[in-house]
From TrEMBL:
<dbReference type="InterPro" id="IPR037883">
    <property type="entry name" value="Knr4/Smi1-like_sf"/>
</dbReference>
<dbReference type="InterPro" id="IPR032675">
    <property type="entry name" value="LRR_dom_sf"/>
</dbReference>
<protein>
    <submittedName>
        <fullName>SMI1/KNR4 family protein</fullName>
    </submittedName>
</protein>
<dbReference type="InterPro" id="IPR051873">
    <property type="entry name" value="KNR4/SMI1_regulator"/>
</dbReference>
<dbReference type="Pfam" id="PF09346">
    <property type="entry name" value="SMI1_KNR4"/>
</dbReference>
<dbReference type="InterPro" id="IPR018958">
    <property type="entry name" value="Knr4/Smi1-like_dom"/>
</dbReference>
<feature type="domain" description="Knr4/Smi1-like">
    <location>
        <begin position="148"/>
        <end position="287"/>
    </location>
</feature>
Length: 488
């Protein structure tokens, strides 16, 4: 403990030595490293104090992952240090139901090894794929490919995975073992060998492996209805990759308008669980044959989102509108976007009229404005997430209890008159409030038995977070040091 205190005192002294105004520094550690940010005493992020890497490294060497340190100081040289190991890397978040997942984010069911369908590859499909590969060889790849896999080898891979591959992917593996020559046969993807396909899909399912504190919004792929709106699926089977850390997968559990065996992509450049690529492996082969020698344009920008209400070619494609610093915002003006699911208004300087047009499939509203009326949102029966902030006159929120699908609510930066009404919200599973709001709500005797996740937002250091965690029935402790350290 003496070594820890020495390191913390050195960190505190270094921090206050660079202060020109009171402030505090928050540091958290995890298995991936550490994060550090300084703030004014009002809670605004800023570059305050002095905390060179050597001081951080020495202090952090004494702590394991999951430690949070808060250094509060003033230019006169005084400082107080709080630190805890009880709250993980985020002591202002409490997971109350570890098994809960938002709708569409349920964990995929595990695959069971073994397959019952042991038929050989469909002969007409095999003949078609063989001809497509032959055409590609004639036009683009004169050196050809090695001999493909046997039916027994493909069946052995399927047995390990617990699924039968789509017929055209089976056929492709019958014709060649992989595309180790990177010929462009599945441009832009490269066919993986069977053993790698098994390895990839035995480890994890594509898509998001997220939790209740992550963004639960999933947008429709283009074209809508082809891919199910889920964050991950045991029906997505990865079979090819590119060299930008993106992958192609066949979809064995498509949406209502999709086709079994359609091709989707996931990976570093995909800002969704997956994106639709082609109707089948055969369609991907045909596209490569027809377009491999053509000049490729840069990929189009995301078509499902806009920050303009006028410069939109196809309003039916827009699923999210994000407006920053916009004035005179009226949700009623959004009726020409029939598939709109998310509205984000950031820092509007004027009142926002949140009266929604009927029949819009709105699922998320996020508004920061000086004036708004939450009660008008009660017509949106599909609304599952609300964040309100910035209002100058407190507003009532009790009417939101009539929303049957409201799962997530963030009022931490809003002024409300009836915080106690949250106890009547029937579907709420994630709640984010400020310290004062939590105090007011818990003072009514309400307990978060129906919540899956609770979050303390706004200016809150280690000591405040410890008190909050205890108020929700969670064990939490922190230690405190005061400086400057007496000379020895």
């Amino acid at each position: 403990m003496e070594l820890i205190e020495v390191a913390l005192h050195r960190l505190g002294a270094a921090f206050v030595a660079g202060l020109h105004e009171p402030g505090y520094l928050l540091i958290s550690t995890s298995e991936w490293g550490r994060t550090a940010q300084s703030y004014t005493m009002a809670g605004s992020p800023g570059l305050l104090g002095r905390w060179p890497g050597t001081d951080l490294n020495e202090a952090m060497a004494a702590f394991h992952a999951g430690t949070v340190i808060e250094v509060i100081g003033d230019p006169g040289g005084d400082y107080t240090i709080h630190w805890t190991r009880d709250g993980g890397t985020t002591p202002t978040q409490i997971l109350l139901d570890a098994a809960y997942r938002f709708p569409g984010h349920e964990r995929p069911s595990p695959r069971t090894p073994g397959v019952t369908d042991r038929r050989p590859t469909d002969p007409p499909v095999l003949a078609e794929v063989r001809e497509l590969v032959a055409e590609f060889i004639r036009e683009h790849h004169a050196e050809g490919y090695p001999a493909g896999n046997t039916e027994e080898e493909i069946l052995a891979a399927e047995d390990r995975l617990g699924v039968r591959l789509p017929e055209d992917l089976r056929a492709l593996y019958r014709v060649l073992p992989d595309d180790r020559t990177e010929s462009g046969l599945l441009d832009p993807f490269v066919l993986a060998p069977l053993d790698r396909l098994v390895e990839w899909n035995a480890e994890a399912h594509p898509g998001y492996q997220d939790g209740v504190f992550d963004d639960p919004m999933i947008f429709d792929c283009d074209p809508p209805g082809h891919v199910r709106r889920v964050s991950s699926s045991s029906g997505w089977l990865t079979f090819a990759g590119d060299y930008g850390m993106n992958y192609a997968a066949v979809d064995l559990d498509p949406g209502p308008l999709g086709a079994h065996g359609q091709v989707v992509t996931h990976g570093r450049d995909v800002w969704a669980p997956v994106e639709y690529v082609a109707g089948s492996v055969r369609a991907l082969l045909r596209r490569a044959i027809d377009t491999l020698d053509e000049e490729r344009d840069d990929p189009p920008p995301e078509r499902w989102q806009t920050d303009s209400l006028t410069e939109v070619d196809d309003p039916a494609m827009i699923q999210e509108i994000v407006l920053a610093d916009a004035t005179d915002v009226r949700f009623a003006d959004l009726d020409r976007f029939p598939n709109l699911k998310s509205i984000v208004v950031r820092d509007s300087p004027t009142p926002v009229d949140m009266t929604l047009p009927p029949a819009l499939p709105i699922e998320r509203v996020n508004v920061t404005a000086p004036t708004f009326d939450p009660a008008v949102l009660t017509t949106a029966l599909t609304l599952s997430g609300i964040r309100l902030a910035g209002n100058r006159t407190p507003v009532p929120i009790a009417a939101l209890a009539t929303l049957p699908a409201l799962l997530s609510l963030d009022l931490a930066e809003a002024e409300v008159t009836d915080i106690e009404s949250i106890a009547t919200f029937p579907a709420l599973r994630r709640l984010t409030l400020s310290a004062g709001q939590w105090t007011g709500l818990l003072a009514t005797g309400w307990q978060p038995s129906s919540l899956a996740a609770a979050e303390l937002a706004g200016p809150a250091g280690v000591a405040a977070a410890t008190h909050w965690r205890r108020s929700l029935g969670h064990e939490a402790t922190h230690r405190t040091l005061h400086g400057p350290r007496p000379a020895t």
